[in-house]
Amino acid sequence: MGSTQSQEKPDVVRIERSEIPEEYKTVGVSSDVVRRVNAQNPDTGSEKLKAELAKEKDEKNRLRDEMARLTVIQQKLANGNDVSALSANLASDLENRKKIFEETVDRVEKQFFSLQRENACEQNEKEIAACLQNNPGRILKCSSLVQQYEECAEKFRQQVLQGN
Fold first, then answer.
1. 3-class secondary structure for the chain?
2. For the chain, what are the domain ranges?
3. N or C: which end of the chain has fewer CB within 10 A?
4. Could you read off the pLDDT tens digit of each residue along the chain, which spans 164 residues?
């Protein structure tokens, strides 16, 4: 039952070069045909491989640069003179950075913290303190002084906010 089909030999067509007419020997394919054929068989695997290859190249270049840098450092460490020069450079760089930091701190302190206003209401404070000492237990007698002090403080606050 089916054994005859599996024993059939397929038809094979052989064409010799000499049998091909001359006009078919050189066939030109336009770029449109190539695009259509490529569009029918999208090959996303090649794009992934290209991206992976680019990533590997970048990693290889980065590692090569790192190796070159480490080789230079190793050569400097191998020479005793270079170690002292390297440590002197590091110390000099550290001192420069420390100096710049200190200058920045001084500039910030001058700009933001050096502005100390005098106590404009100091006289009112002294009057209230004297009134409270002279009238122990009778703080209501000093209430008018407290009101003057609050007015002075409000006036001073407004001056500070206006930048005067």
1. CCHHHHCCCCCCCCCCHHHCCHHHHCCCCCHHHHHHHHHHCCCHHHHHHHHHHHHHHHHHHHHHHHHHHHHHHHHHHHCHHHHHHHHHHHHHHHHHHHHHHHHHHHHHHHHHHCCCCCCCCHHHHHHHHHHHHHCCCCHHHHHHHHHHHHHHHHHHHHHHHHCC
2. 45-113, 122-162
3. N
4. 556 666 677 677 777 777 777 766 666 667 787 777 777 765 666 778 888 888 888 888 888 888 888 888 877 777 765 556 667 788 888 898 899 999 988 888 877 766 667 788 889 999 999 998 998 888 888 889 999 999 999 998 888 887 66
What residue has token string 């237990």?
137
CB-CB contact of 119 with 125 (8 Å): yes
